[in-house]
Design a protein that fits this description.
Number of strands: 9
Number of helices: 3
Strand content: 15-25%
Structural class: alpha+beta
Largest sheet: 3 strands, mixed
Strand order of the largest sheet: 7-8-9
Helix content: 40-55%
Order of helices and strands: EEEEHEEEHEEH
Radius of gyration: 21 Å
């Protein structure tokens, strides 16, 4: 629970990161990480409910689609059974179908599926596990970067306020 929570989303296509598709989300207040996850996914899934907009730059050129115009084939959440349940709730409420969902719990690198009482344990040397870990780790890197940036912005604002107050006090004393 807390305020000023930062979340992130990374996109991989064909096993490679699509950094131009990465997004950071600011959540002013949340009860816990499952609520934060639900809210972030609600924002992301809203794009899938909007009609596709295609624009051709010049006659004869292929139209370009706006970002997030197509659904992912797989949605991976960082966490176990509670986080997967929150993600499934967001998918259900958005009315989005055809997206597979799983979560990866860090402690034992367990793969959790919706409505499953037990995790899937992939072999440690599995290429599938390696890719899921790589995607999760990239998301953790992006969210940590976003947290650091938000922290630096907050500190910079605090320093500006202190400097302004100090300057005003110095003016009164002189």
């Amino acid at each position: 629970s807390g305020t000023n929570i930062v979340a992130s989303m990374v996109v991989f296509e064909d096993g490679l990161p699509r950094k131009d598709q990465y997004r950071r989300f600011s959540i002013p207040e949340s009860a816990d990480d499952t609520e934060s996850l639900y809210r972030v996914l609600g924002r992301r899934l809203a794009y899938l409910r909007e009609p596709l907009e295609e624009t051709a730059l010049d006659e004869g050129q292929a139209p370009t689609k706006r970002k997030f115009a197509y659904p992912p084939q797989l949605l991976i959440v960082d966490g176990g059974q509670p986080q997967v349940a929150a993600a499934q709730r967001a998918l259900d409420e958005a009315g989005v179908t055809g997206i597979r969902l799983c979560g990866i719990a860090k402690r034992l690198e367990e793969i959790w599926l919706p409505d499953s009482d037990y995790p899937v344990i992939l072999p440690r040397n599995s290429d599938a596990l390696f890719l899921i870990q790589r995607i999760r780790d990239e998301n953790v890197r992006v969210v940590n970067e976003a947290r650091e940036q938000a922290k630096n912005e907050k500190n910079r604002t605090s320093e500006e306020v202190v400097t302004t107050k100090k300057t005003a006090a110095e003016q009164i004393l002189s």
